């Protein structure tokens, strides 16, 4: 049988974060360009590519479980090839992954993703590949083919790859390599093309988006990039993964001034105890964080603040945990994610003393999450009865009900807003008014009466085309 017959189908299973998802979309584009068919159903595929996450142990377990399930399908059905790609072969050696998972016909790392069509062709010919030894260097650009798997109104755009920060708990520099920025023109051209395709929201991602341009231009260039993107046709530009050291006054001003930049800042702080922050080798301290966040709120009074914390770090005491809880009380974040520390082989923190028992780590995570839920009443009160722009995503459970998001809610990681009394189309933007909450994280809204019956041009636009899957 030919290695690329007209009916040859490839499925890509994307695990982990949005950065991985962009890699999967680029691989899908390369495969389509090479003449392969793409399917979202693994049981309809001749070859399945698993784009793995290897960041922490639970992600590694998920990847291995997925691979073994597909291996069983390969033994029982039409599946002819299984490719393991992405972060897992970088977190460990490619040879080790290939040895531990002999069910895989090919193992490739992040640097080899552009070779995916050749790899699939070889697998269909019965060849086996182990290609994950190059230093991470791949960085996609606007001219590469890409098949988006997100809804038609939403797209993720990487501004950079890799990381230079020395955080003692993190494996990302080992997996993704040193920090490297995309040229600004490449990003702007990609966003302009996405706007032409009907995309309403572009989410900028990178391991540290705020360091953008330092390697390429010799200075932090995210403020200039946001100003450039402010002149594109995209309605919302959202910023994720900000590093506190690089949230400069210039960046805050650019966010406040650019007409389409969401007043939303995702800034993983990881902790608020000065002692633990030093052990993590993170920039700053509690006082610096409070000063920075006050500056952000002064420039954008309606800003939504999101952060993540790690609890149970080696040497963390009850006093450190209390410092974190007090910090949360003082700041009142809109969205908080909490992770129990994971001891990762090869990281400096793995060799530290005073490791916190796993059960206690889980208890501390539950304590912090419960504390955030108690704060949500105060946090939500800032949004009540306020006018808000909403992006309709999908119909709700009842006629005239929609699942939407506001600029204060990032896709996938935050809650949603339920809109009642609206008949629209996915991808439309409307003006609404927040009327209440549903559960701890979701809001309720109705269309703003001042926006009904008149010219909706400032708030409604043409529905976007269906997403490519």
Automatic annotation (TrEMBL):
SMART domains for the chain: Elp3
Gene Ontology cellular component annotations, sorted alphabetically: ribosome
UniProt xrefs under Pfam families: Radical_SAM (PF04055), TRAM_2 (PF18693), UPF0004 (PF00919)
The reaction(s) this protein catalyses: L-aspartate(89)-[ribosomal protein uS12]-hydrogen + (sulfur carrier)-SH + AH2 + 2 S-adenosyl-L-methionine = 3-methylsulfanyl-L-aspartate(89)-[ribosomal protein uS12]-hydrogen + (sulfur carrier)-H + 5'-deoxyadenosine + L-methionine + A + S-adenosyl-L-homocysteine + 2 H(+)
Residues the record lists as binding [4Fe-4S] cluster 1: 17, 53, 87
Keyword Ion transport on entry: no
Residues binding [4Fe-4S] cluster 2: 163, 167, 170
Cofactor dependence: [4Fe-4S] cluster
Subcellular location: Cytoplasm
Top EC class, one word: transferase
Main location per the UniProt record: cytoplasm
Residue ranges of every copy of the Radical SAM core domain listed in the record: 149-378
Cross-referenced Gene3D superfamilies: Methylthiotransferase, N-terminal domain, Nucleic acid-binding proteins, tm_1862 like domain
Database matches in HAMAP family: MTTase_RimO
Family: Belongs to the methylthiotransferase family. RimO subfamily.
Name this protein carries in UniProt: Ribosomal protein uS12 methylthiotransferase RimO
Organismal lineage: Bacteria, Bacillati, Bacillota, Limnochordia, Limnochordales
Originating gene: rimO
């Amino acid at each position: 049988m030919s290695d690329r017959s007209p009916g040859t189908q490839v499925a890509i299973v994307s695990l982990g974060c949005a950065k991985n998802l962009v890699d999967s979309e680029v691989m899908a584009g390369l495969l389509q360009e090479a003449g392969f068919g793409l399917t979202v159903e693994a049981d309809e595929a001749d070859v399945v590519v698993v784009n793995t996450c290897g960041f922490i142990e639970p992600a590694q377990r998920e990847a291995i479980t997925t691979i073994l399930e597909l291996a069983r399908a390969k033994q029982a059905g039409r599946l002819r090839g299984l490719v393991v790609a992405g972060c897992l072969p970088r977190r460990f050696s490619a040879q080790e992954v290939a040895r531990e998972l002999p069910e895989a016909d090919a193992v490739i790392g992040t640097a080899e993703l552009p070779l995916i069509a050749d790899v699939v062709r070889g697998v269909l010919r019965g060849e086996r590949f182990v290609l994950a030894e190059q230093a991470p260097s791949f960085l996609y650009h606007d001219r590469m083919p890409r098949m988006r798997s997100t809804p038609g109104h939403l797209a993720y755009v990487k501004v950079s790859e890799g990381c230079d920060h020395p955080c003692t708990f993190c494996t990302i520099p080992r997996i993704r390599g040193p920090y490297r920025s995309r040229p600004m023109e490449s990003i702007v051209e990609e966003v302009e093309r996405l706007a032409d395709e009907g995309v309403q929201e572009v989410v900028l991602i990178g391991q540290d988006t705020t360091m953008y341009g330092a390697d390429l231009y010799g200075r932090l260039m995210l403020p200039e990039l946001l100003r450039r993107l402010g002149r594109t046709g995209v309605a919302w530009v959202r910023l994720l993964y900000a590093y506190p050291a690089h949230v400069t006054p210039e960046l805050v001003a650019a966010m406040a001034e650019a007409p389409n930049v969401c007043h939303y800042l995702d800034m993983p702080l990881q902790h608020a105890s000065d002692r633990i922050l030093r052990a993590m080798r993170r920039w700053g301290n509690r006082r610096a964080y409070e000063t920075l966040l006050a500056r952000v709120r002064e420039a954008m009074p309606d800003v939504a603040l999101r952060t993540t914390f790690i609890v149970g770090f080696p040497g963390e005491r009850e006093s450190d945990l209390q410092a974190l809880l007090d910090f949360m009380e003082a700041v009142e974040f809109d969205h908080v994610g909490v992770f129990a520390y994971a001891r990762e082989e090869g990281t400096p923190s793995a060799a530290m003393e005073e490791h916190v028992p796993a059960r206690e780590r889980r208890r501390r995570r539950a304590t912090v999450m419960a504390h955030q839920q108690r704060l949500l009443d105060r946090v939500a009160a800032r949004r009540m009865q306020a006018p808000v722009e909403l992006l309709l995503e999908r119909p709700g459970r009842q006629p005239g009900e929609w699942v939407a998001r506001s600029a204060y809610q990032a896709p996938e990681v935050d809650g949603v807003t339920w809109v009642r009394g609206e008949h629209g189309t996915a991808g439309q933007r409307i003006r609404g008014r927040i009327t209440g909450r549903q559960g701890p994280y979701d809001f309720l809204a109705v269309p703003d009466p001042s926006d009904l019956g008149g010219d909706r041009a400032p708030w409604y636009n043409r529905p976007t085309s269906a997403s490519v899957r």
